[in-house]
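Mods, move this if it's the wrong board.
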Amino acid sequence: MQDTENSPIDEQEISLLDLLISLGEGKWMIAGVTSLCALLGVAVALLLPPMFTGKTVLMPPQQQQSAAASALASLGGLAGLAGLATGIKSPDDTYVALLKSDRLTDVLIKAFDLKNRYESKYLADARKEFASNTRVTADKKSGLITVEVDDKDPGVAANMANRYVEELRKLLGTLAVTEAQQRRTFFEQQVTRGKEQLAQAEFSFKQAQQKSGMQVTQALAETGVRASVELRVQIASREVQVGALRGTYATAQNPDVIRLTSELSALRGQLDRLEKGSQSNSSSAQGAAAPTKSNADGQEAVRAYRDVKVQEAILEVMVRQYELARVDEAREGPLVQQVDVARPAERRTSPKRTLIVAISLLLGFLLGTVFVLVRSSWRNASRDGETAGKMQSLRKAWRLGRS
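Not the wrong board. Structure tokens:
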């Protein structure tokens, strides 16, 4: 009974001894495989070209309260536009995405002739190679962005990292990223549109005046102009807000879209009633000023004159806001500030030759050990009659030729 209880322990001791004996018998094989892998690791480490890293650190612009936000609130109907301008953020992820964009990458590839440098046939291959040699990371705590570029030449690596900053500034000069830039872009478009509409209104007024043959004065058409301007500005601001919501994420069922649409309908109805009332007033005034002309032609001339005054007032507001936006944009200073300028590295970044040799040694030892243990197991199995027969059948089954 005692021998039966001790038999599993004896079998474990025998198995461990067999394992150690097998490793001892194959120690030279293990040493040879380990040495061979180590030599291969040394060869690879020496053959790999040394790579140097150019590193630069950027600080994106910090968002601040603009002076035009309070000015927008004083414009009545245009106060709604402040909701589009405030709350706009420029997270670090935006600048990281711009740094990784194909537009910026293609400029650097062309500037440093990276297709020939990387021996790439296609531009897409050069992009992949350049992306593998570039790292752009953002520190969430400090808000700084680090750009690292690897190259065989330390000077070229530093120049490419610094060129990133220069090209990013050029790219941001064509894009509206910050709050002030977006307001400046919006009001710049509105000023251009307002000038076109004013020119068209003046042309229509001249035609209507020539057709009616009457001299329309400011006193004749003054009634309702100020109220009409205010209503039209309110309508324009809400149309911009609705367009912005629908252009981003909101649908027709969005509560803000529904509210703004309802306000638009009410304002347009109020404007329609105001203009119809002013038309009737101008019609009676026209009968006394120019009885020889038809009422229809006179009303058209007065309405055209009023449109000119409305467009002038709207354009004046837009020009004032455009100038405020330009001032705020200038106050922001440089969009991207370079904290650390990249300099040629004194030491290589890769390859890590010591690490390569150490991994090769470990891999060689493991391969040699596995090979010795498998060979020992194969030999032991060949000595067993039943296992030897199965191995013979296995060889016969996998033989390629006819048996």
